[in-house]
Design goal:
This protein has 156 residues and is an alpha+beta fold. It contains four helices and eight strands, in the order ββββαββββααα. The N terminus is likely disordered.
Length: 156
């Protein structure tokens, strides 16, 4: 008997989604912007989370932060998130953007993120792994270990 029955669908791995690099502005105060680069990374093995790395124009990644994919998607059009991570659209302007607020005990950071390319990239991630399939194959121990203790904890 052939291992692949013609009526049994063969699951394929989702196509990898390339990272997205965006120029963002960190708001230091009401009038001062610090240009930065934000790199959005999607891993189909953990589809509910997007990892965002922030770096200055001089290079060197300063911080990486896991953010819910649904929070990012929702924040393109309405207030999304609560607690340490929130995102919402800016007032209508010539360049559509959203505010991304990251709060931590040591420091808060507010970023202005252009939305057109981020929206298109997020749609690509949803084609790779639809929202309804996000939590199906999740390795809960590894996922929680990485969120709570960082990537080294999951392998310990």
């Amino acid at each position: 008997m052939h291992p692949h029955h013609p009526h049994t669908p063969v699951r394929s791995r989702p196509e990898p989604v390339p990272s997205l690099c965006l120029d963002v502005d960190r708001m230091l105060d009401e009038f001062t912007r610090l240009p930065m680069r934000a790199t959005f990374r999607f891993d189909a093995a953990v589809p509910a989370v997007v990892t965002v790395g922030f770096a200055t124009e001089r290079g060197g990644e300063l911080v990486r932060r896991p953010i819910g994919r649904e929070l990012l998607h929702g924040g393109l059009t309405a207030m999304s998130g609560c607690g340490e991570v929130r995102m919402w659209p800016t007032l209508p302007r010539e360049r559509p953007s959203s505010w991304l607020l990251l709060e931590a005990p040591e420091v808060d950071a507010l970023f202005e993120v252009p939305t057109a390319r981020l929206a298109a990239w997020l749609e690509t991630t949803y084609r790779a792994v639809p929202a309804e399939a996000e939590w199906g194959g999740l390795n809960w121990d590894g996922f929680l270990g990485e969120l709570l203790d960082g990537p080294d904890a999951a392998s310990a």
